[in-house]
Design goal:
The complex is a heterodimer of chains A (329) and B (157). By secondary structure, chain A is mainly alpha-helical. Chain A has 14 helices and four strands. Chain A has one domain. In chain A, the strands form two sheets. Chain A has a two-stranded antiparallel ribbon. Chain B has a single domain, classed as TATA-Binding Protein, CATH 3.30.310. Chain B has a five-stranded antiparallel sheet, covered by helices on one side. In chain B, a hairpin with a 4-residue loop joins strand 4 and strand 5. Classes of the chains: A mainly alpha (329), B alpha+beta (157). Chains A and B meet through helix 3 of A and helix 2 and helix 3 of B. Chain A: It holds the Pfam family FA_hydroxylase. Chain A: One of its GO terms (molecular function) is iron ion binding. Chain A: It comes from Novosphingobium malaysiense. Chain A: Keywords: Membrane, Transmembrane, Transmembrane helix.
Chain lengths: 329, 157
C-alpha cells in the first residue's frame, strides 16, 4: 500500500483508509432521508442550546442533563440500525452486552473513584483555594459565551491529554486498550481500561456545581458533538460542521489499523484544535483496531496495562543490569 | 458434573432435521465457513465436530459461543444435526445483575445507576437467551438447507 501524503506524513501505508471528503460515500435514499441525515446533527445541537438557554430553573438541572444524554443515546442506537455507515460494524447482542458493561462501570465505579480521589475532589480543592470573586467578569458574560469558553478550554485540555496518551508510554498503556475496538458504535467511547476512563474524567465532574447553567450548556455542546465520535451512522455532515467539529469519520481514522492515521484527530469536540496544531486528517477508515484487528477479551482489557507495564519494566531493568549479552558456551 | 437445569443458563442445545438426509462429511462441509474464523480451532472425529473459539471477532456469526460440539446422526433414510454449545457471554450477562447489585450494596452513592444497570442486564440476558439460540439455529439452517429446500418449505412465488 502506498498511502496518501497529507502534509509531511503518509497516511494509509499500513492499512486501507479513505482520505478527502470528496472520496467518502454519501447517504443513499429519497430526499427526506437525505435531508434528515444532513441536518440532524446541527438541528439537535441548536435545540439543546436553546433548551439550556431558555429552560426554567425548575427543569434545568443535572438530572435532566443525564436523562437527555441517556434518551439521546437510545435514539442514536436506533439510527445505527436504520442507516449504518458500515455493515461490518453492526451491533450484535454480544457487542452490546460488552459495551454496556463498560458504560455501567463508568456510571458506578469510575464515577465513585472520581468523586473521592479524582475530579470532584480536585475541583473542590481548587474552589477553596481560589478567590472566585475575581471571576465575576466571566460570569457576567453572555451565557453562550461562557459555555463555549468552558467547553473549548475543556476540549483543549482533552486534546493534550489524549495526544499525551499517544506519545508517552505510561499513559499509552492505559489508552491502548481503547484502540483495540474493531468497530464503532454509540457506546464504544466507554470501552477501555477503567484507569483511562478515570484519567479522561479528571476535570469533568466537579465543575458541575460551579456555574451550573453555563456548565450544563457546555456539557450539552459536548454531548451534541462528541457523541458522534463513536457512531455507526452515515451522515452527510455539513461542510462547516466537519470543519469546526470532530465527526465519526475523523475519529474512525484515529482508530484505523494504520499507525500514522491513529496519530491524528485527537480532539473530542473541536477538530479545529487539531487543525491549529497540524494533526487533523480529513477522511475515514473501516478497518479498525490494533495488531491487525485482534479482538481483546474483557479480562485482557482489564489487565493489559498492568501486565504490559510489568513486562516492559522488567525488560528495561534487565537491559540495565546486563548490558552485554554473554555468549553461551 | 451434571447440572441439567443450571446449565441451561449458558448452554444451548438443539437439533435440526436434515431433509434430504446428509452425511456428516457433507453437513460439516456446508458449515465449514462458520469455523474458518480468527481464533477458531476445530476437529472432526467421524460424525462429531468439536470447536473452540478464543476471542472471536465481533462479526463472527458464532461469537457468542466459545466452545461446543455438533453431531450429525445419520440414520440412512433420515439424518439430524444435534448441537451442544457453550456460551461464556450468556453466563457473563447472567452474572452482571448480581455484580451491579453488589456495587449498589457496597457503594451507597452509586445505588441508583447500579440498580438501573442490574435491570438492563437482566433484560439483556433474557433477550440474549432467546435471540442467540434462534440466530445460530437459523444460521445452521441457512448453511445446511439453504440451497436444498424441500418442496414443502419452498416459498410459493
Amino acid at each position: 500500500m502506498n498511502g496518501v501524503r497529507v502534509g509531511k506524513r503518509v497516511i494509509g501505508a499500513d492499512a486501507p483508509v479513505t482520505i478527502g471528503w470528496e472520496n467518502l460515500p454519501k447517504v443513499e435514499g429519497g430526499p427526506v432521508k437525505r435531508m434528515f441525515f444532513t441536518y440532524f446533527q446541527p438541528a439537535v445541537l441548536f435545540a439543546l442550546i436553546a433548551f439550556w438557554m431558555y429552560a426554567p430553573d425548575s427543569i434545568a438541572k443535572a438530572s435532566t442533563a443525564i436523562g437527555i444524554g441517556v434518551g439521546f443515546k437510545i435514539f442514536l442506537l436506533g439510527l445505527e440500525w436504520v442507516n449504518p455507515r458500515h455493515s461490518s460494524w453492526r451491533l450484535t447482542w454480544k457487542e452490546l452486552v460488552t459495551d454496556l458493561f463498560y458504560v455501567g462501570i463508568s456510571y458506578t465505579l469510575v464515577k465513585y473513584a472520581g468523586k473521592h480521589i479524582g475530579s470532584d475532589a480536585i475541583a473542590e480543592a481548587v474552589r477553596q483555594l481560589g478567590d472566585w470573586e475575581k471571576l465575576t467578569w466571566f460570569t457576567g458574560m453572555p451565557l453562550l459565551v461562557q459555555a463555549f469558553a468552558i467547553s473549548f478550554m475543556f476540549d483543549f485540555g482533552q486534546y493534550w491529554m489524549h495526544r499525551g496518551m499517544h506519545n508517552w508510554y505510561p499513559l499509552w498503556l492505559t489508552h491502548s486498550v481503547h484502540h483495540y475496538i474493531t468497530q464503532l458504535n454509540i457506546n464504544k467511547g466507554a470501552v477501555g481500561n477503567p484507569v483511562e476512563l478515570f484519567l479522561i474524567g479528571l476535570g469533568i465532574g466537579g465543575f458541575f456545581d460551579f456555574l451550573p447553567r453555563a456548565a450544563l450548556l457546555a456539557g450539552s455542546i459536548g454531548l451534541a458533538v462528541g457523541t458522534y465520535q463513536h457512531i455507526n451512522v452515515r451522515f452527510n455532515t455539513p461542510r462547516w460542521w466537519r470543519f469546526l467539529f470532530n465527526t465519526t469519520e475523523h475519529h474512525s481514522l484515529h482508530h484505523s489499523q494504520d499507525y500514522e492515521a491513529t496519530r491524528s484527530n485527537y480532539s473530542g469536540t473541536y477538530i479545529i484544535i487539531d487543525r491549529m496544531f497540524g494533526t487533523c486528517v480529513d477522511g475515514e477508515a473501516e478497518l479498525l483496531g490494533m495488531e491487525g484487528g485482534r479482538r481483546m477479551s474483557i479480562r485482557e482489557q482489564m489487565t493489559y496495562p498492568f501486565t504490559e507495564g510489568y513486562k516492559s519494566t522488567k525488560a528495561f531493568i534487565q537491559r540495565r543490569l546486563q548490558p552485554v549479552a554473554v555468549p553461551a558456551e | 458434573m451434571n447440572l441439567p437445569y443450571i446449565e441451561r443458563i449458558w448452554r444451548v442445545r438443539g437439533s435440526l432435521a436434515l431433509d434430504p438426509p446428509q452425511s456428516p462429511a457433507t453437513a460439516f462441509g456446508k458449515l465449514d465457513h462458520l469455523f474458518q474464523a480468527a481464533g477458531t480451532t476445530y476437529e472432526i472425529d467421524g460424525d462429531t465436530l468439536t470447536f473452540n473459539k478464543k476471542d472471536p471477532l465481533s462479526q463472527d456469526k458464532m461469537a457468542s459461543f466459545n466452545r461446543g460440539t455438533l453431531r450429525v446422526a445419520d440414520e440412512g433414510a433420515s439424518s439430524t444435526l444435534l448441537y451442544d454449545l457453550n456460551s461464556n457471554t450468556l453466563l457473563f450477562c447472567f452474572a452482571l445483575p448480581f455484580f451491579f447489585s453488589g456495587i449498589a450494596w457496597l457503594l451507597e452513592e452509586s445505588r441508583t445507576p447500579a440498580f438501573v444497570f442490574a435491570g438492563f442486564f437482566s433484560f439483556l440476558y433474557v433477550v440474549g437467551r432467546i435471540l442467540e439460540p434462534w440466530l445460530i439455529r437459523s444460521e445452521f439452517r441457512k448453511s445446511l438447507l439453504g440451497n436444498t429446500m424441500s418442496g414443502r418449505e419452498r416459498p410459493v412465488a
